[in-house]
């Protein structure tokens, strides 16, 4: 039985209650989305106004929070967010298990190599010459192209696609409708039409990379487009051909990285930012949301705006703008004095 | 026979012609894309210059439009746009019918519940424990994950995917390659690599929601990511984990909404706008195209720019900027006076 | 045998070496990603610092480059980039061949027409009434809707989808997870919910169009959304309903084009730009990255910023902004003079 009594909540959170209760908790909720059998938490004082109308049976708060003045059941503890996470994990549904085996409707091409304990779901496609290492999961309708290699313990969610010859490391996660290895956007422009430049390289996803839904990573013109070990890509991101991204970066949704950009390690790129082609971004840089990067960045730079400048410069520009009406007033006073 | 004579056009539009004609109309067209058997309309005076070169057999105009000076056949009526829509619907091809039944190549898992009059197309996947209510359509190669529930009269277009346990309401439309319930983007950062935070919640799409092609909606860390009743999402939108969107909102393409944002009812968010994490957007707000919202919005606010400010403030800033060269000139005159 | 000796490299590049060598080259690489059996090139002097640490066995440079002072093997030639491309093509893996034939797991509907030498892969779906012309390739799990026509020599990559009645020309390339012909985003707003406007038109992709991964092109309200001959669309682009795009345009990733926009020929739209609804963009315009176009553009205009203005105006605004602090200083001096 998964339901928790107050005494069990107190034990998990190492907390104290502001009163006794025989409440039974059987799920977690946000403050605004609860019921008398759910537990919620105040993670940030800015949500304090939500306590009054919350229907949650128990609210976790930190030890400094003054529970007087609210007629409801609180559990005070050192770290409400961490305690809440533990309780959420207690209530979490069982993880979906993909029992190893190859579904009879999957397509398995010629000369493929399928490791031990691999799951290949209904309608999944493994083209000729592909290899899937041990303990990997290829979900329904996912596509593994010719001569692709998939490392151990990786998972391809439904409708994900890896085009021919690309290399996927170990423990890689590919979310639905992502596309690994589509053609780079390269043409020789012409007045009578543009000539396609063959894109004969590949994409290499190193170990522990995660690629979000509908994220697209183009294969190299030649050589490799590389996503370094441990880098995490959110949904709907475009990575151009021949881009090389280092280790342990975070890239948030709807970012566009143009061709041949090189990005260091531990770089963070926030949502909807863009980077022009052929630039070099140093280790540890932070590119803020919607920024448009048009020059190389030194290690550790923090940039915002379009074209992207340092945060200091961005804010200074805005302060300058606000000065204009004051300047105009002062100038008018001087002019009037000497009319 | 679907072709229409002038007399029939006059009847449908309750209009009058500037001359008689035995023209036969068998399709609708825009002004620039017609032929002598098509009918077009002038919906906006800014397109007036297109009349001269239009090849359309009949052009619908409003009663105030002066047809003299053009040597062509006009039908004047009260609302040309509405009349044109009626005629377009007359010529519309029959709607594609999906005859109820389960294709022999569909995958139907264990312990599924399939209602009356349901269509399940070739290659569609219904995983264990899923349930599809009456009159729904699951198109070819669509994916319905473990324990997902799909309400009555909903349609999943080809290649759409709903991951495990998500809840889809009645009359919901999911367009191709959309992804409902992929993992939220949550990690514990670390110097030796980032640790994935399990995303054990779900996505709930309430009744009458529409989700565009390649739009991605992440499942909650725990609890639910919620899209409220009647809300319409365009293509290529990112909705982060634990976002809660109210009823009857419009969200246009390429918008990014970061995790835990709460959005009220009847909010409009235009193309390529973004909202930072954990913000609260009041009922009836309008966020203009490309705006970047970085603070809570009160009900009814209209914002633009990055960072987003009121429209008034945004325009004021631009006017200030234009003043600078004038200020410089006036200052120079004063300086010269006292040299 | 594909490996190349120095003499063969000299022949292909019509170049000269700075010393003799018995090096054997068997792959191409970038400067930073090579080994002693790879050949690289210096395409741009800004990468000159990468030469020192490069492990490439041979580096192609132009005839003006001074090879003295580097202890490595150079081949000097007229156009290092072009020579490199020739050598890369020499080493390119064989193109994936899709042997004509219909896989037994493909779905072929009623009244379809399949031309000569067509490949239809495993799990591909051809709905009733569709027609595929000679020499086309429909990859695994791709979807061809009811009454769709696909011209000769076209390729639909895995998981691409073309909805009912759309027209695809000859030599068209559709990348994975693109969606052609999903419903336009059209509703009659209402206080009790928004009413969907039927989208009964189609999408027409003319000859030699290329559509990137996860790009979405909405069908017309009525009539046609048109992508003109030879136009190339990158990944993750949104094209709204009734948009008409001319011939030989380039549109880069994450661009949003709202409904009923008309775009001329040879227009370039860079990444993350957007165009508001119903605008007209003249032939040969260039819209820079992240620009937001809110007015019609005359032929040949080059615009940037949000709202988009001419490049000249955009830069002028930034220069003005930088003047403010100087103006303030000069004003202060005048004020002090007359205190």
From TrEMBL, chains A, B, C:
Protein keywords: Acyltransferase, Lipid A biosynthesis, Lipid biosynthesis, Lipid metabolism, Repeat, Transferase
Subunit structure: Homotrimer.
One GO molecular-function entry: UDP-3-O-[(3R)-3-hydroxyacyl]-glucosamine N-acyltransferase activity
Pfam families recorded: GMPPB_C, LpxD
Biological role stated in the UniProt entry: Catalyzes the N-acylation of UDP-3-O-acylglucosamine using 3-hydroxyacyl-ACP as the acyl donor. Is involved in the biosynthesis of lipid A, a phosphorylated glycolipid that anchors the lipopolysaccharide to the outer membrane of the cell.
Family of this protein: Belongs to the transferase hexapeptide repeat family. LpxD subfamily.
Protein name: UDP-3-O-acylglucosamine N-acyltransferase
Active-site feature positions: 241 (proton acceptor)
PANTHER family referenced in this protein's UniProt entry, alphabetically: UDP-3-O-ACYLGLUCOSAMINE N-ACYLTRANSFERASE, UDP-3-O-ACYLGLUCOSAMINE N-ACYLTRANSFERASE 1, MITOCHONDRIAL-RELATED
Recorded catalytic activity of this chain's protein: a UDP-3-O-[(3R)-3-hydroxyacyl]-alpha-D-glucosamine + a (3R)-hydroxyacyl-[ACP] = a UDP-2-N,3-O-bis[(3R)-3-hydroxyacyl]-alpha-D-glucosamine + holo-[ACP] + H(+)
Pathway entry: Bacterial outer membrane biogenesis; LPS lipid A biosynthesis
Family annotation (HAMAP family): LpxD
Domain UDP-3-O-[3-hydroxymyristoyl] glucosamine N-acyltransferase non-repeat region: 22-89
InterPro entries: GMPPB_C (IPR056729), LpxD (IPR007691), Trimer_LpxA-like_sf (IPR011004), UDP_GlcNAc_AcTrfase_non-rep (IPR020573)
NCBIfam families attached to this UniProt entry: lipid_A_lpxD, PRK00892.1
Broadest EC class assigned to this enzyme: transferase
Classification of source organism: Bacteria, Pseudomonadati, Lentisphaerota, Lentisphaeria, Lentisphaerales
Keyword Translocase on entry: no
Ranges for domain Mannose-1-phosphate guanyltransferase C-terminal: 102-182
CDD domains linked: LbH_LpxD
Alphabetized SUPFAM superfamilies for the sequence: Trimeric LpxA-like enzymes (SSF51161)
EC number: 2.3.1.191
């Amino acid at each position: 039985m998964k339901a928790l009594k107050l005494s069990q909540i107190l034990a998990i959170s190492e907390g104290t209650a502001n009163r006794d209760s025989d409440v039974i908790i059987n799920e977690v909720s946000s403050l605004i989305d609860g019921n008398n059998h759910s537990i919620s938490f105040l993670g940030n004082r800015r949500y304090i106004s939500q306590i009054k109308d919350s229907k949650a049976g128990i609210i976790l708060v930190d030890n400094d929070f003054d529970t007087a003045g609210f007629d409801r059941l609180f559990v005070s503890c050192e770290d409400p967010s961490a305690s809440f996470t533990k309780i959420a994990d207690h209530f979490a549904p069982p993880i979906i298990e993909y029992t190893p085996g190859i579904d009879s409707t999957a397509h398995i091409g010629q000369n493929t190599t399928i490791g031990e304990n691999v799951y290949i779901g209904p309608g999944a496609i493994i083209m000729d010459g592909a290899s899937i290492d041990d303990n990997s999961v290829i979900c329904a309708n996912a596509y593994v192209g010719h001569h692709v290699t998939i490392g151990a313990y990786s998972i391809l969610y439904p409708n994900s696609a890896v085009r021919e010859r690309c290399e996927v490391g170990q423990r890689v996660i590919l979310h639905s409708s992502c596309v690994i290895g589509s053609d780079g956007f390269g043409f020789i422009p012409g007045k009578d039409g543009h000539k396609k430049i063959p894109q004969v390289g590949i994409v290499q996803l190193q170990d522990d990379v995660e690629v979000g839904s509908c994220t697209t990573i183009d294969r190299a013109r030649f050589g490799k487009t590389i996503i370094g070990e441990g880098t995490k890509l959110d949904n709907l991101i475009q990575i151009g051909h021949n881009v090389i991204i280092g280790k342990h970066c975070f890239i948030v949704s709807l970012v566009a990285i143009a061709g041949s950009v090189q990005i260091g390690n531990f770089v963070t790129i926030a949502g909807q930012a863009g980077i022009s082609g052929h630039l070099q971004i140093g280790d540890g840089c932070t590119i803020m949301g919607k920024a448009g990067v048009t020059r190389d960045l030194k290690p550790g730079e923090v940039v915002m705006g379009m074209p992207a400048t340092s945060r200091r410069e961005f804010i200074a520009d805005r302060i300058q703008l606000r000065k204009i009406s004051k300047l105009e007033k002062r100038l008018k006073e001087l002019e009037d004095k000497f009319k």
